[in-house]
Amino acid sequence: MLTASDDPRWRSRYYSTGGARRRFLDAGSGPRALLCLHGIPSHHVIWREVIAALPPTIRAIAPDLTGFGCSEFPPGAGLSPDDQARDMLAMLDRLGVRRFGVVAHDYGALVACALLDSAPGRVTCLALANTSLLPGDWSGSWLSPLQFVRLPGVGELAFRLARPFMLRWAYSIYVLERRKLDGPLMDELWAPFEHGFERTLLRLFRERGAGPDNFRRWRAALSRYDGPALIAWGARDPTFTAQRAVDIAGLLPQAEKAVLPGASHFVQIDRPRALAHLLGRLVERVE
């Protein structure tokens, strides 16, 4: 089980839907909700420092996506962005949240685009960070230590041999503030690997469920979106470079753009307060 801070604001909650128990962080209060979506291979704790720095009048909801973190992975559940978007809408319905903003990172940004495609009237504002809407970028960077899991047998063996220091090394490629990878945060990021998280990664990386048609649909959903938007980017990301921020800005020409020089891929770890400040301003723009 993942650990939680003694501060009650950071005690994760659970809800059940579709026969599966799911975990999420729910902090702050007020009429404006902000859904925080993580990427691969992280989970909701990646947003904790950002949420702590948000105005308390913003209700921040950071779930574990299906199959990630300590959310259960029921038989037959889907891991595609469209499947995840359906799960997120079901969660928000259960929490009584009708309209919400979204901040999404990495794979979570694809889920955000799927939300815009399926329920555009529910999204009040949108922030995307260090991601890509080009299908070729998701076929795998040579830098990514996770690419070996695509090889039959090799992936299973690698996960049996995996140790916490290996995950720390993998994160260190994408984090500039490496001191933050010592202690409790790294323990929490490793914990899902003790509870079957490899099933999610093996299936996700081997299925490659999102094809060009999906990306065209998600890009079209972004192009139709006319609400408040933000593109926040860690400038020193070795995989999703600042050029990808330019690509997305072409789809969201009215978006505020912020490139953070002191951040790599995991901008939530490197610059949580700066990101929280930008998100606070974004939510204030919601009418």
Explained architecture:
With 287 residues, the protein is of the alpha/beta class. The chain has one domain: 3-Layer(aba) Sandwich (Rossmann fold). The protein has 11 helices and 8 strands. The chain has an 8-stranded mixed sheet, sandwiched between helices. α2 packs across α3 (107-118) and α3 (107-118) packs across α8.
Biggest sheet statistics: 8 strands, mixed
Name the shape in a single word.
globular
| Shape-level CATH architecture | 3-Layer(aba) Sandwich
Tell me the count of domains.
1
State the helical fraction: 25-40%
The secondary-structure class comes to: alpha/beta
Summarize the structure.
The chain is α/β, with parallel strands linked by helices and 287 residues long.
Essential attributes:
single chain; Rossmann fold
Please describe the topology of this protein.
Elements: E1 13-17, E2 20-27, E3 32-37, H1 48-53, E4 58-63, H2 81-95, E5 100-105, H3 107-118, E6 123-129, H4 154-161, H5 164-172, H6 184-190, H7 197-207, H8 212-224, E7 229-234, H9 242-251, E8 256-260, H10 267-270, H11 272-284
Parallel strand pairs: 3-4, 3-5, 5-6, 6-7, 7-8
Antiparallel strand pairs: 1-2, 2-4
Helix pairs in contact: 2-3, 3-8
